[in-house]
Amino acid sequence: MKKGKLIGKGRTAEVYAWGEQRALKLYYPGYAADAIRREAEIGQIVREAGVAAPRVYELMEESGRRGLIYERIPGSALAAMMRAHPRGLFKHAREMARLHHRIHSCSSTKLPRQKDKLEQSIREGEGLLKENTATICSYLHALPEGRQICHGDLHPDNILVTADDYVAVDWSNATIGDPLCDVARTSLIFLSPANLRDISAIKAFLERQIRRWLNRAYIREYCRLAKVSRERVDVWILPVAAARLQEQVPGERKWLLRLIQRRMKSMAAARAE
Ligand SMILES: Nc1ncnc2c1ncn2[C@@H]1O[C@H](COP(=O)(O)OP(=O)(O)OP(=O)(O)O)[C@@H](O)[C@H]1O
Ligand SMILES: [Mg+2]
């Protein structure tokens, strides 16, 4: 079979139609075969746990690049829909919260532990975090453990909207842990200044304001469904921000460092009281 049209693109791969019902995730050259096998395994684990994720089929090679065949989700990426139909923005943010809450109703014992992955990422960012690294790691270990399936990177580019559902794709970062940590990561992505560098200052200002409102609508709906306070999400922001530093997302570094610094200061002030 030959690959069909390009239906999506991310930081690790392009995704092409593969016949009518399937999609080929074609990784960029140099992407490790082990990471692809692991992604396939995680995809199977989350489906077995009852999550509505795309089915995973076989690994393959196409034009010298490694690929993985998935069930094709017949829909549009939520990010594109949000850009095309700004009127439905807040409904989409609430639906994201509902999807996230559904994901968190599933559990498994076969995925990596959230805190282990976070700690590893925080330690990888040590060059920037310096002496704060150890403090943030011990703070992380005092937070709740959790046993739920967490997506690890739920944002509008990793959600497809079909005729009757919202479906999360890109499960390679899934872990077992505290759902509120997963929510904190989504929130951080909403608030990130990334992708705002190539537009005018006024447009960037408006875009960030909209993202703040979307974040508020998303968190409010999630906290309502999970019956938890916002503060319980907020306690995760420090380790989640510290872990994100090593991803080196363009335009984020200064913002993350400032946010981490502020959180460290208020922690120290609270201790001194
Ligand atoms: N099973 C699927 N069916 C239909 N479209 C898909 C499917 N999987 C992925 N896509 C589309 O392809 C895009 C890229 O896929 P994916 O997010 O898995 O790539 P990635 O490189 O891992 O992304 P990231 O940059 O988040 O790491 C998605 O945003 C989505 O629009
Ligand atoms: Mg993606």
What can you tell me about this protein's structure?
This is Aminoglycoside phosphotransferase. Residues 1-273 form the Protein kinase domain. One of its GO terms (molecular function) is protein kinase activity. It comes from Xylanibacillus composti. It holds the Pfam family APH. With 273 residues, this protein is α+β, with helices and mostly antiparallel strands. The chain has 2 domains: 6-71, Phosphorylase Kinase, domain 1, CATH 3.30.200.20; 76-272, Aminoglycoside phosphotransferase (APH), C-terminal lobe (Aminoglycoside 3'-phosphotransferase, Chain: A, domain 2, Alpha-Beta Complex). Helices cover 49% and strands 16% of the residues. The protein has 11 helices and 10 strands. It has helices at 33-48, 78-84, 89-103, 114-124, 126-129, 132-141, 179-191, 201-226, 230-234, 237-244, 253-272; strands at 6-9, 13-18, 22-27, 56-62, 65-71, 76-77, 148-150, 159-161, 166-168, 175-177. Strands 1-2-3-5-4 form a 5-stranded antiparallel sheet, covered by helices on one side. A hairpin with a 3-residue loop joins strand 2 (13-18) and strand 3. Helix 4 (114-124) packs across helix 10. It starts with 5 loop residues before the first strand and ends with a helix. The mean pLDDT is 95. Adenosine-5'-triphosphate (ATP) is lined by residues 7-13, 15, 23, 25, 54, 70-73, 77, 153, 157-158, 160, 169-170.
